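The data layer described in this paper is built around a simple, fixed record for each protein. We quote a single record here, exactly as it is kept in our systems:
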Amino acid sequence: MTSAERAAVTMGFEEPDRVPLFTIYGAKDLGLSIREYSSKLKYVAAGQMRLLEKFGGIDCPAHQGGVCR
């Protein structure tokens, strides 16, 4: 299942092969607005690292639909 398929299935209230995560979730986890979060690479990196720690891996389109750990 691709990242796009995974997101579409989830938004259709069906169960994907694994839980998709959206990169902007890191903004919420850090307590930042989307605008502030997107303004600095260090915020995006911190958000992604936090998601890795929290969920043990994230859906990573850059790795052809693999899981980044």
The beta strands are 58-60, 66-68. The chain has a mean pLDDT of 80.
